[in-house]
């Protein structure tokens, strides 16, 4: 069973907006998630968010939805790029090269995700297979319909 507690603070947001010169800041959030099984806490976790949404027009349910959506991006994009392609450890002194490499890995991931309905393998297995068979990757990239 997972319990989520959401804390919203507009006063601290006013202070942070002025002190940090963060002009759009209107709401600070704290989200406590606690997973329990058999009366024992398995994984307590606290996350903090800053947002520009109007605190009087957004519901707690919508804030929870947005927080979960944020982690969907983190888990489906950044985690894949960091763990599979070790993007955080790429180092170069050539100006612009790191950005170009990030664009290429992002494009490769986008192609793999856009074509996942046609594949029988999970995303990681397809990426590994395409590394070993570049002719399949070229065919995949040159298809007219995705």
Q: What is the ordering of alpha helices and beta strands?
A: EHEEEHHHH
Q: Specify Rg, calculated over alpha carbons.
A: 21 Å
Strand content: 15-25%
Please give the share of residues in helix: 40-55%
Broad structural category = alpha+beta
Low-confidence stretches: none
Helices, by number, come to: 5
- The outline comes out as extended
Structural domain count: 2
Indicate the mean pLDDT: 83
Q: What do these coordinates show?
A:
The protein is α+β, with helices and mostly antiparallel strands and 146 residues long. It has 2 domains: 2-83, no CATH class; 87-141, no CATH class. It has helices at 11-19, 60-83, 97-114, 123-132, 134-141, and strands at 2-9, 27-37, 40-41, 45-51. The mean pLDDT is 83.
Produce the secondary structure layout.
Elements: E1 2-9, H1 11-19, E2 27-37, E3 40-41, E4 45-51, H2 60-83, H3 97-114, H4 123-132, H5 134-141
Antiparallel strand pairs: 1-2, 2-3, 2-4
Features:
146 residues; alpha+beta; four-stranded antiparallel sheet; 5 helices; 4 strands; extended
Could you write a compact summary of the structure shown?
This protein has 146 residues and is α+β, with helices and mostly antiparallel strands. The chain has helices at residues 11-19, 60-83, 97-114, 123-132, 134-141, and strands at residues 2-9, 27-37, 40-41, 45-51.
